[in-house]
Amino acid sequence: MKQFKLTFVLTMLMSMAGLQAFAAWDTFTKVKVDGLYYYLDKTNSLAQVTSMPSGKYAGDIEIPLDFIYEGNVYDVTSIGNYAFQSCSGLTSITIPNSVTSIGYEVFSSCSGLTSMIVDSGNTTYDSRDNCNAIIETANNTLVAGCKKTIIPNSVTSIGDRAFLYCKGLTSIAIPNSVTSIGESAFHNCYGLTSITIPNSVTSIGSEAFLYCSGLTSVTLNSNALASKEYTSSDNLKYIFGDQVTKYVIGDDVTSIGDRAFYGCVGITSLTIGNNVTSIGSMSFYGCSGLTSVKIPNEVTSIGAHAFRDCSSLESLTIGNSVTSIGNSAFQCSNLTTVTALNPTPVAIAQNVFTNRTNATLYVPEGSKEAYQAADYWKEFKKIVGFTKIVFADADVKAICVANWNWNTNHDGELSMEEAASVKSLGYAFQSNKQIKSFDELQYFTGLTSIGNSAFQGCSGLTSITIPNSVTSIGNSAFQGCSGLTSITI
């Protein structure tokens, strides 16, 4: 027990080391001059801006270079810890060139702050390119921002707690120059709804986007972050939080690391980029909100327990290049539909799929017999060889394509060859109020345009996936689709 106490004390002392310089000011005289409060170091004629004893600063504040107090001139060289914290009425701050140190959480919870300006003569800090932020010049680190901040392309790091409790921040673009995002950098930024992490970012501190209750969509282009091996208690869940419902793993990502999204129970929509080749062990373990997953054709391996205990997962498509699937990868009790696009059955263990006897397996035509003979694949309740697309909604029975019609005689099916020949959709599903989803567009590999009013008035449509071959979408294509909540491009 004594050893524990000693270790604890040493740890606390080390964690406070960076604040000692500011804490020392507490021993000096506190005075008020022209509406601002300062600690005075009378020996060296220096002053530090500090918080009000009661009340909050408000309005436009310009910190002076120096001031006279009791006949002596004091240079303002620092801004103390929490000096303007929770000053919701503060609208702008101007920092003189004399300030060489800024403390801890100085501007957190300043919800009304829209302007941050550092004097051009300051050699320690700057607010380059009218960014409305404070940047540490020597290392290009953004140390404090506000709801009107625009991060310059020259910034390489976003500091710890730089936007802490910045409730008015609704969007922020992180440029490709940024390589690191500090701990709690955007903690409790309630107004953020989406964020894109560029490939340049190689590290994000813990809780960087935690408790951003409005943040529901994350686009992750950083290969360094996506491919990293995490622990169960230190992964992307603890960076972005459980409220994120949509993750898009961009084309800059080549692999998904072990436990990367472990326990991210909020995910309902997952898009895996076209350049991902491997999915690590336990990478999506326990993502109970997922209902469908599509493994791209570029993926060759899926690790053990990768999607285990995804209790809502019903539909799974496995790309045609997968050659390895680890133990318990799809132990999902509600999985009812599996589409395996590889014509050659991959060798799997008995426990890869736990719901085989209640699920239907779709395989390429001509490979049905091979799957019927393969260990554990053969135990699926039903194995269907397909040359046709069977649409998710049985009521989808009519499609107008260029100068020919796919009519009701097709009864919800279209051959792969016919799908490949489709170049554009006309008034394809106009006013079809029964259709709920149309993710089968991915099979139209030659599709280049979606025409005027193609899905107009489809009030029951909730999701649609648009393939990368599409280069134009016509007027009113989705007008009146009042239920549409998810579009994947």
Name the beta content range.
Answer: 25-35%
Largest β-sheet summary: 6 strands, mixed
Principal-axis shape equals elongated
User: Ends: how far apart?
Assistant: 57 Å
The helical percent reads under 10%
Report the mean per-residue pLDDT as an integer.
86
SS-based class:
mainly beta
Number of helical runs? 6
Short recap of the structure:
This protein is mainly β and 489 residues long.
Structure commentary:
With about 500 residues, this protein is mainly β. The protein starts with a helix and ends with a strand. A hairpin with a 4-residue loop joins strand 11 (about 135) and strand 12. Strands 1, 2, 3, 5, 6 and 8 form a six-stranded mixed beta sheet that branches. A six-stranded mixed beta sheet has the order 10-11-12-13-14-16, with no helix packed on it.
Keywords:
single chain, 489 residues, 6-stranded mixed beta sheet, 8% helix, disordered N terminus
